[in-house]
Here is the input.
Amino acid sequence: MFGFPASTEFGKKIPKQKFYENIAITPALKRVFVERIRLILWRNKLAVTTLNLAAGGAVTEVEVFEIRLNAPRLDEAVLRQIDRAVPYHTLFVLTCDGKAQAWVGCKEAAATGGSAFKVGWYYHTDWVPEDGLRFRVEGLSLDAVYENLVRQVAGDALPSAEGETLQTSVARDENRRRLERQIAALEGKIRKERQLNRRMEMNGQLRLLKKELGQA
Here is the structure.
């Protein structure tokens, strides 16, 4: 399913309660688990034991979870909650009414070490027919496989320069998004500002931000 080799198929149902019982989460987030998620399936395990690949330096396994929804929308906070509970890199596939959407967060080992992870920005595909969502397993190590999966999901949102690492690409994208937010906020302030000298000052700041964005 989803184009992964048969050797990686796992097909295990995971009770959704596992991700919120005995854990301090908000009532609102628990309600999302209960009302919006119909079923969670551990679809695939991409690992040295299931693929003829070398072990990764950062990635030991990539777990593929299918989350069947009652409606085609899920709060990103739910994915973060699941990611925090799974000590491996993850790829999520949301399915609903014959359509599918892939989500992946740039998951890295936390500085504290052990099995702790930190998850940065999430990337996702558009909703597509379920039988049209296919992934390619590319790379000679699990590190490379995971990086290529992230880039497949992110698409044009995560362009890369020749030889650029995933971490560098993501950092560049996050910087671009930060600049876009700053520009939008400053443009809003300029529209509301009545003092001419203050407007001129902010327009100067805006030009600098736009120049920086053009170079990002």
The longest strand covers residues 37-47.
